[in-house]
Amino acid sequence: MRDKTQPNSAAPGDGLIRAGAIVFFLGTVATMVTVAPLFFGAKPFPTYMFGLSMLMAVGFLIVGAGVLRSIAAGRRQARGEAG
After folding, report:
1. Where are the alpha helices (DSSP H) in the chain?
2. How wide is the angle at C-alpha 19 spanned by C-alphas 18 and 21, nearest 5°?
3. With bands split at pLDDT 50, 70 and 90, how would you rate the model's confidence at 58?
4. Which of 14, 23, 73, 80 holds its CA 20 to 30 A away from the CA of 31?
């Protein structure tokens, strides 16, 4: 039996993975901007910039949730086809 999903259709969890990747990238940029003054001997950024660096962890968690959602949907689909 042929798979019923279209090649360009979004699977469950794809949106979370994309959003998490964007948040992770923003956190990476914030981390580089926050650490750069330490290398150049400039005045450090305010404390909230270190908080923005935590976006890397938040993005990683969002991506993980998307992957788990995708795995769960795949298991449900496999269970439905087998049974």
Report:
1. 14-40, 47-52, 55-82
2. 65
3. very high
4. 14
